[in-house]
């Protein structure tokens, strides 16, 4: 069987892997990319509702979760959102800002995959799909990998295998296994940017409200996010909940401000003075979805005219509206999670080059590392930045 030799071999043809490959190729390195899936960039294609939220203009290290919050700073500083935007503009891809610095393609995520493949082609990078790794070993001058499509040798090996989220797209823990084999510890993993499930009474109380959406401020511990919440038939979702899910753990309580930016007590007192004869559900239904307003009154607040609420009852109702307690029972898991929290501990990885401090010539990039971004383009920016750092050094 023929041996395919290169300077750099990348396992994983996703965002981080392709970016590492094209960066190394632009330096004149001979680069091969292999992936066990049948096509490249599957998660890129499905991201952002098919439009790919490819970066966030406000990216800082504060937008990431990691056991070492400083680790991502170097790579993010050396490859910025502006750098990737320039590349998008070079390829004449039309884009728009949706909200909060989130940039999306105007048409399709396919444009970003095409950009990456075109840049790889221009840099002489060879990309091969349907290629499963069967064995990895170190040799005198680098690496030898036996695959379902032959033997590959390379001076440098870049692991860009992603995390465990969306297993139907081919996600596996293979990258963690490689890291462990060469002495790296892997921090506990869990689903991130994921809908939360309710059970028992909390779920029963929301029965029939599936599809109701509203703006909330969701809080868990010190973290809080103001954005949309969506009630589902199994629990709660929407951007605010996906964001807070990264900070939630079983047993932790969530707090929801159902009227963010509004002092509920002042508003209720005003309603009592001006519209005392109106039912609470009626006035509440003017600032919240009507079905939710009705359910809140039935289950929690009381179903009567506003003038019948005394001051103490108004305070209780206001407290619930501005600080609604909710106990989630779990998450929807990796099946629907956008990212994986945890991963390869960054303590033994160079923040400048993504190279292992334990095994020369081994690089780890993207989601396989213990670096997880917020919702809104931050995880793609980490893919570009970490891939760029490794591609510059491998």
UniProtKB/TrEMBL annotation:
Pfam families: HI0933_like (PF03486), HI0933_like_1st (PF22780). Residues 190-339 form the RsdA/BaiN/AoA(So)-like insert domain. Its cofactor is FAD. Residues 7-392 form the RsdA/BaiN/AoA(So)-like Rossmann fold-like domain. SUPFAM superfamilies: FAD/NAD(P)-binding domain (SSF51905), HI0933 insert domain-like (SSF160996). Keywords: FAD, Flavoprotein. It comes from the Bacteria. The keyword NAD does not apply. The keyword Flavoprotein applies. This is Membrane protein.
């Amino acid at each position: 069987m023929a041996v395919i030799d290169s300077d750099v071999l990348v396992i994983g043809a996703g965002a981080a892997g392709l970016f590492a490959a094209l960066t190394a190729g632009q330096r004149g390195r001979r680069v091969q990319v292999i992936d066990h899936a049948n096509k490249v960039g599957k998660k890129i294609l499905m991201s952002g509702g098919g439009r790919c939220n490819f970066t966030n203009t406000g990216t800082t290290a504060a937008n990431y979760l990691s056991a070492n919050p400083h680790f991502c700073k170097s790579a993010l500083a050396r490859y910025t959102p502006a750098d990737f935007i320039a590349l998008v503009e070079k390829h004449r891809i039309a884009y728009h800002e949706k909200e909060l610095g989130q940039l999306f393609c105007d048409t399709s995520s396919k444009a970003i995959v095409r950009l990456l493949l075109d840049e790889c082609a221009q840099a002489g990078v060879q990309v091969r799909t349907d290629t499963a790794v069967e064995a990895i070993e170190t040799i005198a001058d680098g690496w030898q990998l036996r695959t379902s499509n032959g033997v590959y040798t390379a001076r440098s090996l870049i692991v860009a295998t992603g995390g465990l989220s969306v297993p139907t797209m081919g996600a596996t823990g293979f990258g963690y296994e490689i890291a462990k084999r060469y002495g790296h510890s892997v921090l506990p993993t869990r689903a991130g940017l994921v809908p939360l499930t309710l059970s028992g009474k909390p779920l029963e109380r929301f029965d029939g409200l599936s599809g109701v959406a509203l703006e909330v401020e969701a809080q868990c511990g010190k973290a809080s996010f103001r954005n949309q919440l969506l009630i589902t038939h199994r629990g709660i979702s929407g951007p605010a909940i996906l964001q807070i899910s990264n900070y939630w753990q079983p047993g932790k309580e969530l707090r929801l401000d159902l009227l963010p930016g509004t002092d509920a007590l002042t508003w209720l007192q005003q309603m009592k003075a001006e519209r005392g004869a109106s039912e609470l559900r009626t006035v509440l239904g003017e600032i919240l979805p009507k079905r939710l307003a009705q359910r809140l009154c039935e289950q929690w607040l009381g179903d009567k005219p506003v003038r019948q609420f005394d001051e103490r009852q108004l305070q209780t109702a206001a407290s619930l509206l501005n600080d609604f307690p909710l106990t989630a029972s779990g998450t929807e898991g990796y099946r629907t999670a956008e990212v994986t929290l945890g991963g390869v501990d960054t303590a033994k990885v160079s923040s400048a080059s993504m190279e292992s401090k334990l095994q020369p010539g081994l690089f780890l990039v993207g989601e396989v590392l213990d670096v997880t971004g917020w919702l809104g383009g931050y995880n793609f920016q980490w893919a570009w930045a970490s891939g760029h750092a490794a591609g510059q050094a491998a």
